[in-house]
Write a structure and sequence with these properties.
This protein is an alpha+beta fold and about 60 residues long. It has helices at about 1-20, 40-60, and strands spanning about 20-25, 30-35. Helix 1 (about 1-20) packs antiparallel against helix 2 (about 40-60).
Length: about 60
């Protein structure tokens, strides 16, 4: 079950890397961060998502 979630999240990360947009938590809901506009927030969200993917594969 957790590996399936990890695979789905990994596919989302690949999509985010190819499009340059990622949806990340911000305030009560969230926002879309773009690579060109919010470089730090974009890569920060990517790093967090990759960490969650690794946790889903190896920890759970």
């Amino acid at each position: 079950m957790f590996r399936l979630l990890g695979i789905l999240l990994a596919l989302y990360v690949v999509r985010c890397l190819s499009t340059g947009e990622v949806f990340a938590k911000s305030g009560p809901w969230g926002k879309t961060c773009r690579r060109e506009e919010d470089t730090f927030e974009y890569w920060g969200a990517i790093v967090v998502y990759v960490g969650i993917v690794l946790a889903l594969f190896f920890w759970f």
